[in-house]
Amino acid sequence: MDQRARCRGRYNAKKYREKEKVMAEDTATAAPEPAPVAVWLQAWNVATSDQISLVAAGCAFYAMLAIFPALSLAISIYGIGFDLNTIEPQLAVLQRLLPESSFQLIAGRVRELVLTPREDLKLSAVIGGAIALWSASAGVRALLGALNMAHGQTEGRGVLAFYLTAFMLTLGAVLAVVVGLGLLVALPTGLHMIGLTIGESLLLRLSSLSLLLVAVLIAISMLYRFGPNRPPRYWRVFSAGAVSATLLWLVASAAFSFYVTYFANYSAMYGALGAVVALMTWMYVSVYVILLGAELNAAIERYRRRARA
Q1: I want to staple 55 with a disulfide (CB 3.0 to 4.6 A). Which of 34, 146, 173, 265 is the partner?
Q2: Element (H, E) at 163
Q3: Distance CA 100, CA 220 (A)
Q4: Where exactly are the transmembrane stretches of this chain (predicted)?
């Protein structure tokens, strides 16, 4: 009897020690919470360097080359499942974020594409799609290089794998625009059929902006996940960098639109090119914010590695 009790006691003690060991290992591998102020300052110091600024400027240039061919491609794909005349009313969401001159530049091109016969639109989609994907892919490749710099990595993927990653991210962005337009059309149509009060109409407008923010958040998260040479160790969809970049993009876009509308006069300085300059500047700000979010994620990851060492 005593022998069995002693054996049982030794067995329980052994199991307890094993459990303590597992808990200790789990605690050691768990990512410590970063110090917010120090991490933000580190990310900001890196993001304000000239190198990040140059990458953002290069990406904005390629995005400017790609935007109008990409519009042709996106509208052609959109026209397969939706009425093209439903596109223009949905641009109201974009109008809240862009300077008026830049918005009119894009809206005017959208109107031209909507009025284009479908046969001609298909041809322009093929040509424009090739140009858009090449230009946008070049911008994405520059962005991938910046993400590698943020995480202290060197590009180790083969040429084919690197170009394929950039192409798939570019294609995913185009498809996301199409799906986003579809949701912006389908949601108001469905809610309108059941009848809306004034409060519900306001809620509908807010839901359109929410859909846009969710789409931007997911797109940025996917870029942070698949962009660097090696995926971040602590990646998640709602990472601090992705959420911060999304919110900063919304605030920066609204602030830049307000500044251009009420203070800056690009048309007086650049003439007919004023809308183009304003649009390119907005793209520069957008890319810069994305890189700032990447630097924040990288700073958090470095802090966690040091805390574990």
Answers
A1: 146
A2: helix 159-193
A3: 25
A4: 54-80, 123-147, 159-186, 206-226, 238-262, 268-296
Q: Rounded to an integer, what distance in angstroms lies between the CA atom of residue 153 and that of residue 132?
A: 28
User: What are the φ/ψ torsions at residue 30 (nearest 5 degrees)?
Assistant: -65, 140
Q: How many domains does the chain have?
A: 1
Q: What confidence tens digit (pLDDT) does each residue in 5-38 have?
A: 445 445 444 443 454 444 444 444 444 455 566 6
Nearest residue to 241 via CA among 67, 72, 44, 85? 44
Tokens of 155: 């590009």
* Domain extent for 135: 66-150+158-308
Residue 95 is assigned to a structural domain of this protein = yes
- Give the whole-angstrom CA distance, residue 123 versus residue 121: 5
206 and 187 in contact (C-beta within 8 Å)? Answer: no
Angle 288-294-296 (CA atoms, 0-180°, nearest 5)?
105
Burial of 182 (0-12, 13-18, 19+ CB in 10 A): middle
